[in-house]
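Continuing the series of single-chain predictions for the mutant panel. This is the parent chain; the variants come on the following pages.
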Amino acid sequence: MATAGAGGAVRKEGSTKSGKDPEKTARPGRPRRADLDDRFLEAALDLLAERGYDGVSLEEVARRAASTRPSIYRRWKGRDALLLDAVRLVFRRMDETAAAAPPAESVRERIRRLLEGAIRDLRDPRRRRIMANVIAAIHRHPELDELQRLVHARRGVLLRRILEQGVKRGELPADLDIEAALDLLMGPVFYRCLVLDLPLDPDEAGRITEQALAARRTEDEETREKTR
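Parent structure:
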């Protein structure tokens, strides 16, 4: 946006009288500030939680980060690129939570602890709204293919690894349908937290794990009965 300065001179918003961006003028030759990157990402996530994907504007991100739009454009090509990195940050934090879980020997216990961590993450209302709004956005905007690939690739990535290891170690059936198992384990968590916007108690992780594995055992028993 342009504003009139003294003598009627036109000056771009966020610039000095010389027409230079204040961030560049204040720190010539210095690398970009990591703390400003973080402020932009956090402001974008706040807006994503409050207003949804379509409600995020670079003007408001810049205002909340106490900076300017040109500073954003020096870091990201535009709003979609900024939000993609912001969502990556959320996933990275969720990975850190999962990695911090105490080690477990059995596949069953590892699954329980992973679900417990996911439930704890989604008990945070801000994070819950962020994830719900991201999922809504990729359904409304098919052109957000990179964001869609990110979300789909992250779907139970750690849980999938545990299930595959369980099959290799013989703790789970060799013919286990990994996709069906993921649905049984993750479905209750995401439906409750992201669709109903209601938190789950972390203690529910054990019940979900037991019910999912019991359902698999029931299917195996039915198959054996049919083949007798």
